[in-house]
Amino acid sequence: MKIFVDTGDVAEVKQAAEWGILDGVTTNPTLIAKSGKGFKETVLKICELVPDGEISAEVVATDYDTMLKEATEISSWNPQIVVKVPLIEPGVRLVRTLSDRGVKTNVTLVFSVNQALLAAKAGATFISIFVGRVDDISGDGMEAVAESVQMVETYGYDSQILVASIRHPLHVVQAIGAGAHICTMPLKIMQMMFKHPLTDAGLKRFLEDWNNAGLNIFEKQPAGV
Questions:
Q1: Whole-angstrom distance, CA of residue 29 vs CA of residue 62
Q2: Is residue 221 pLDDT above 90, yes or no?
Q3: Which candidate in 2, 14, 37, 84 is catalytic?
Q4: Cα–Cα distance between 7 and 23 in angstroms, integer?
Q5: Are 128 and 108 in contact (CB under 8 A)?
Q6: Cα separation of 156 and 167, whole Å?
Q7: Cα–Cα distance between 83 and 61 in angstroms, integer?
Q8: ∠172-155-183 over CA atoms, to 5°?
Q9: Parallel, antiparallel, or unpaired: how do β-strands 160-164 and 126-130 relate?
Q10: CB–CB of 119/98 below 8 Å?
Q11: 158 Cβ contact list (under 8 Å, min separation 6)
Q12: Any idea what DSSP says for residue 183?
């Protein structure tokens, strides 16, 4: 499974990239606005920090002609950029146009397998299914993920199912179980994935035993040398 960080904060991208496990970054208008930086400036800096990653940058228009202009501009900035498009009628039309031109797309705000099917048929590279927002209204967000994974595999679509709106590490576990191709998550969720009480307890015990034994990895130099 690929792991993306969901942020518009360059410092967070840098931190996640330093771990060596980051495959890409997803942004959206809200995250970019929170960053307080320019859109193009932020996206290009993220591309620089994750040179082999796929970086999603979203159009903000809702009519086809303007969306196409925005998508053409955004995709020209860097070959790493994936144009993010909302699952609306002009958006699906745009995805087909961009797909025919060889431009990667990420269809966002998908909540059902019906919507995922439309995105897949239009040629979407990634289909972002929002699980947390469905859970927030007492639904099962992961159900659409499992159904969509089965759908693209059954019919041989090239689209990858991306699990978004991750609220906690359990969502990542459930996404793995559903066979999702990608999880994107806030940095704080990624940090939580490192944590386990037995890891903390085991490390504490190892270090205590090592220190009590007076051991040292580097040999001490004799006095006067």
A1: 13
A2: no
A3: 84
A4: 14
A5: yes
A6: 30
A7: 13
A8: 15
A9: parallel
A10: no
A11: 123, 125, 152
A12: E
84 is known as an active-site residue: yes
What percentage of the chain carries pLDDT values higher than 70? 98
| Cβ atoms of 84 and 109 closer than 8 Å | no
State pLDDT tens for residues 147-184: 999 999 999 999 999 999 999 999 999 999 999 999 99
Three-state DSSP class for 2?
Answer: strand
Q: What angle do CA 15, 71, 60 make, to 5 degrees?
A: 75
- pLDDT, one tens digit per residue, over 113-133 is 999 999 999 999 999 999 999
Sequence letter at residue 49: L
Residue pair 153/132 in contact (Cβ under 8 Å)? The answer is no
Tokens of 54: 């796929």
Q: Pick the closest to residue 159 from 132, 136, 189, 180 (CA basis).
A: 180
List 83's β-bridge partners, or say none: 57, 105
Q: Which domains does the chain have, with CATH numbers?
A: 2-212 (3.20.20.70)
